Amino acid sequence: MCGIFAYTGDKNAQPILLDGLQSLEYRGYDSAGIFLPGSPLVKTPGAVTELRSRIAFSSDAKSGISHLRWATHGEPNEVNAHPHASQNGEVYVAHNGIIENYRELKERLIKNGHTFRSETDTEVLAHMIEVEIHQGKTFENAVVDTLRQVRGTYGLLVSYTKEPNTIITARMGSPVVLGLGAGENFVASDASPILRHTKQVVFLSDGDMAILTPTSHRVRTLSENEIKRPAQTIDWNVEEASKGGYPHFMLKEIHEAPEVLENAIRGRLIQKEGRAKLGGIEAVSAELADLDRLLITACGTAYYAGLLGEYLIEDLGGIPVEVELASEFRYRKPIIRKGTAVLAVSQSGETLDTLEAIREGKRRGALTLGVVNTVGSTIARETDAGVYNHAGPEIGVASTKAFISQVAVLSLVALFLGRSRSLSEDDGRKIVEALKKLPELSRKVLALSDSIKQIALKYKDARDFLFIGRRYSYPVALEGALKLKEVSYVHAEGYGAGEMKHGPLAMIDTKFPTLAIVPQDSVYEKTLSNMIEIQARKGPLIAIATEGDERVKEIAQDVIYIPTTIEQLTPVLSGIVVQLFAYHFAAEKGLNVDRPRNLAKSVTVE
Ligand code: F6R
Question: What mean pLDDT value characterizes the chain?
Fold first, then answer.
């Protein structure tokens, strides 16, 4: 989920590209780079300010490609920043996405005498395109034939020094927008850097490729030479464009769930063997084979994902797991013996308490692991091994897509550990199949956004909310309550449904609504009877239930139906519902859901 921006036209490209990159910077990046034909490639850690200060020439190039990187493979440093050059420096590539089969492609190139400058998956593309050109192909055909060999996702920009006015772009899984001007054309990962130049845009679809010169653009696929993609006029302002047309980043990021799930599982599932392949923790397989206790530590939403990790890893992996708030863990005297690992869950990879908890684990001799979204972050660097989320930057302060991704990745970790222990191949295969269906099922849940909004509006005057669930739905109840309170400032509590009689039931009256997460799972009947206890006290009830469940309608006033998946993965779907509920509830009140009061995105202080 990096930012790409390219220009070809009759003006000086350098200021246009730098200003364009600046308007993509809202996403928060770790490195930047620019290629202007005729000038040296410039790349730097940091962002556009650093990039500007590194440019020691004045270029009169009328085209160029540029990139802001959110690291996926390789540390965020100068060599790994994009664009990447080919062996002979004739082809330059900037890329948003992941090339899954880059290792085999790279090995082949190395055997043929290529040397690589970076650790990225992207660099292979520049080398391959140049090889194809040297075999006598046109620039366009060289890109086509390279992409035919590639597996993975891309929003791609390619520049060729011998045809400096042509920019080639391609899309598979990562957004690409063309901007059509008079005597000039643009390409970007979202419309925000284009809008100050033109309102005429073409949104590419997966599988599309486009060839642009200052006065022409042609869209094609890898098999068809030309396809029609009509231009649209957009009247978003720059801020709306950066949100992809959504009113808030939070809503945009909730809607990224299908893509986030695809990114979490891509290349990590071996269907035939019912296994997960997690390159990041394979290096410590010997220690993992001896693992007899896992301590998961995290804060806030990541902690609730960690609770789900506990259920998943105990369920599938058969390993005892404890989960602890990082802010508690670091000040206790945790008992760590041989065979104990400490696993941190963190979107930012910079949360101070989580980092200190990992350091405490390390001091006490534990193997340290991470489930982290931000590549190269401190937690990612300081843990012995880990699995990245690849969820892309999260801008909304309230974590949404990161939670969905964390649950998916923790289920992969559970599958990985389970299959090297007692989980059968058959059971493993069921998990793999269910994981593969999740992106599609999440799309169905997102389609409920409007009906969830209507339900949220019915309860707009409530000052208190209870969220309840059992087993896999219990951490979702906790997360639902956290989400609601942080974006709407309304009091909400999450409870294990079985705890109602032990206290919370006393609060229930006609003005105290409860949102019950009650999928048809192993504890369905139990949760239903807890709901009946609330119904008997005249408490309003909203239910998140499994499609086709008629019984729940007799108990709850409002029911939100989610599709069926295996019990262990239900939190991914019910998690999206509680996020949408909190979002609509708060957004209707006109609150700044992207920046709730008193909160920061990354908590790097105690
Ligand atoms: C809640 C939220 C926070 C974070 C917590 C941990 O919506 O965003 O509770 O989950 O601050 O942050 P990371 O995951 O960056 O360690």
Answer: 94
